[in-house]
């Protein structure tokens, strides 16, 4: 599959996507977004891939939306037709590619943040499963400094990740924080020396990819569904559905046999 704005490679059971607009600090472009999503879709259907790492070429992960085309999008408030309040029916328009829901349903996604992840460069990876930052990384919910609004469900997801206080501070100030602070507040899982970033990200991805794919995606589905569930009985009911399903799976049988045989399980060549 030929690409214009991303590069791809496969290492073992891990697929790697690299944003490849270094001259633009990997600013988010519709072509890049589409290519990235299509590649993840392809790997989601490939049983040889168990996890996906996304990083950036050059010195940035993703510097935000490509503002080069914003000027033509400016609208004089006097000429703008009144807009109804946002509702559930607006979701496809506000999130045209369904990126957030797509990430939630995907195979495990790991962001290897090699440099600035600003605005949309950050919100696009909030629904990722693991975020690992280089000590050169900077992160920001920059939207308010541009006179615009956070998107991709970030006003919901960010408070769950870092807590309401940190989330409100990040969104209301628009300030830029480094990798160390990002790790301290839980925005990233860890920060590592820049020259070790991909090694560490690939280690985590390989560890995840070792596990059975169906169970990995099930853990993601149940966790996201239970995120806002207040009734513990419903949380446990959904866990029970997946537990019963897992206990009849070939992966569970392989894990039990491997334990009894004192060997590592092989979840990916089951007959």
What does this structure look like?
The protein has a six-stranded mixed sheet with strand order 1-2-3-4-6-9, sandwiched between helices. The chain is 41% helix and 15% strand. Mean pLDDT is 90; it is low at 83-97. The protein has helices at 30-44, 91-94, 99-105, 120-123, 154-162, 164-173, 179-184, 197-209, 213-226, 232-247, 250-261, and strands spanning 6-11, 14-19, 51-56, 109-113, 116-118, 130-134, 138-140, 176-178, 190-192. The chain is built from eleven helices and nine strands. Strand 2, helix 1 (30-44) and strand 3 (51-56) form a beta-alpha-beta unit. It has two domains: 6-67 and 87-209, 2-enoyl-CoA Hydratase, Chain A, domain 1 (Alpha-Beta Complex); 213-261, no CATH class. The protein is an alpha/beta fold.
Which descriptors apply to this entry?
271 residues, alpha/beta, 2-enoyl-CoA Hydratase, Chain A, domain 1, 2 domains, six-stranded mixed beta sheet, 9 strands, 15% strand
């Amino acid at each position: 599959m030929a690409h214009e704005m991303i590069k791809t490679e496969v290492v073992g059971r891990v697929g790697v996507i690299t944003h490849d607009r270094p001259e633009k600090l990997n600013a988010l472009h519709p072509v890049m977004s589409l290519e990235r999503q299509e590649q993840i879709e392809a790997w989601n259907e490939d049983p040889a891939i168990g996890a996906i790492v996304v990083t950036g070429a050059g010195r940035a992960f993703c510097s935000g939306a490509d503002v080069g085309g914003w000027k033509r999008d400016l609208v004089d408030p006097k000429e703008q037709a009144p807009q109804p309040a946002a509702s559930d029916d607006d979701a496809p328009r506000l999130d045209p590619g369904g990126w957030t829901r797509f990430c939630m349903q995907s195979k495990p996604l790991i962001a290897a943040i090699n440099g600035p992840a600003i605005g949309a460069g950050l919100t696009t990876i909030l629904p990722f499963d693991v975020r690992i930052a280089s000590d050169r990384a900077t992160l920001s919910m920059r939207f308010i400094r541009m006179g615009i609004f956070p998107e991709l469900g970030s006003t919901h997801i960010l408070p769950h990740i870092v807590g309401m206080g940190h989330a409100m501070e990040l969104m209301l100030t628009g300030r830029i924080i480094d990798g160390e602070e990002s790790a301290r507040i839980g925005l990233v899982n860890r920060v590592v020396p820049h020259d070790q970033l991909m090694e560490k990200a690939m280690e985590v991805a390989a560890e995840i990819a070792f596990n059975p794919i169906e169970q990995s995606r099930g853990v993601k589905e149940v966790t996201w569904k239970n995120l806002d569930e207040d009734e513990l009985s419903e949380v446990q009911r959904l866990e029970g559905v997946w537990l019963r399903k897992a206990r009849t799976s070939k992966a569970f049988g392989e894990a039990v046999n491997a334990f009894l045989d004192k060997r590592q399980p092989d979840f990916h060549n089951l007959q």
